[in-house]
Design brief:
With about 300 residues, the chain is of the alpha+beta class. The chain folds into three domains: about 45 residues; about 50 residues; about 160 residues, Jelly Rolls, CATH 2.60.120. The chain is built from seven helices and twelve strands. The longest helix has about 50 residues. The radius of gyration is 50 Å and the shape is elongated. The N and C termini lie far apart (about 115 Å).
Length: about 300
């Protein structure tokens, strides 16, 4: 009889032994996992019960029933049993005190700010006022010759008004703008509204010893023109605005009065300059309410 036959008769086969060896560690792992699961499940239940008990205890600390029960407790351990409740109340009082202090500080800061700035927007207005850029120049009849040929600046037409009143006499003023030789010098880049008005005034002198031919020529229509130029880094001024009017005086009229006004929005850069020139400079009346020139920053 062979050895293989004896093994098969007297005990498990080799494959069965190998299967048992494989299943045994697996069963051990399953048992350990089950034991671990049951352990942690029990611990979590106990923790949840403890949290519920603490929550219930904290809630009871805020109810009269709990206080009445503790005050009526005949045992001498009532004070010892009230320690968790007292601790909870102390923490709650500290939290409330902290929140109240925060609210008080915020309200005090808002009140101080409103007292220092009662109109709310005054601070912002003052900041914008500091950055205000504006100018209004007026005519001055005391200047005998306020004009110069603007052709000296290049191809600019007409006679440049080289003198304007800017010393706060009357309605003139300057804010963050300089004026040199009748030119406004821009101090801040932005969009500006530029405007100007010139007053043309022709007077027929009585008893003048002019011939009929010269008188007829003086009554001929004239082209009255106002120019506003910008001076940049380019060699020649740039024409921004131009306004034209043709005069036609009556033969029997003593005065011929015309005014030209124009204005517009333009982008100007720092250190650029603007000026006004006119035709027929001898007809210009530099009355401060009738002839003026200005600009102001709009954004």
């Amino acid at each position: 009889m062979s050895l293989k036959t004896l093994i098969s008769r007297d005990g498990p086969s080799l494959s069965q032994a190998c299967g048992l060896l494989f299943l045994f560690p697996l069963m051990v792992q399953v048992l350990l996992f089950a034991a671990t699961y049951l352990y942690f499940t029990n611990e979590l239940k106990q923790l949840a019960q403890l949290q519920d008990a603490n929550s219930q205890s904290s809630l009871e600390c805020l109810t009269k029933e709990y206080l009445g029960a503790r005050l009526g407790d005949p045992s001498g351990d009532a004070e010892q049993e009230d320690l968790p409740c007292l601790q909870f109340k102390w923490q709650l009082q500290q939290l409330i005190r902290k929140e109240l202090l925060t609210i008080y500080k915020d309200s005090s800061a808002s009140q101080d700010k409103s007292q220092n700035n009662p109109f709310g927007a005054r601070e912002k207005f003052n900041q914008s006022a500091v950055q205000r850029v504006a100018a209004h120049l007026t005519g001055n009849r005391q200047m005998s010759s306020p004009f110069s040929r603007s052709s000296l600046l290049g191809r600019a037409l007409g006679w440049k008004i080289k003198y304007w009143e800017s010393s706060r006499k009357g309605h003139s003023f300057l804010h963050n703008v300089d004026v040199v030789d009748g030119e406004l010098i821009i101090s801040q880049t932005g969009y500006y509204y530029i405007y100007s008005q010139t007053y043309f005034r022709f007077q027929e002198l009585e008893g003048s010893s002019v011939s009929a031919l010269s008188e007829e020529r003086s009554k001929q229509p004239k082209q009255l023109v106002q120019y506003i130029y910008k001076v940049t880094s380019y060699p020649e001024p740039i024409l921004l605005l131009k306004s034209v009017k043709t005069s036609c005086w009556s033969k029997n009229s003593e005065y011929g009065l015309y005014s030209i006004y124009q204005g517009g929005v333009f982008e100007l850069r720092e250190n650029e300059r603007i000026f006004v020139s006119v035709s027929n400079e001898k007809l210009i009346d530099m009355d401060k309410e009738a002839s003026f020139f200005g600009a102001f920053l709009i954004g």
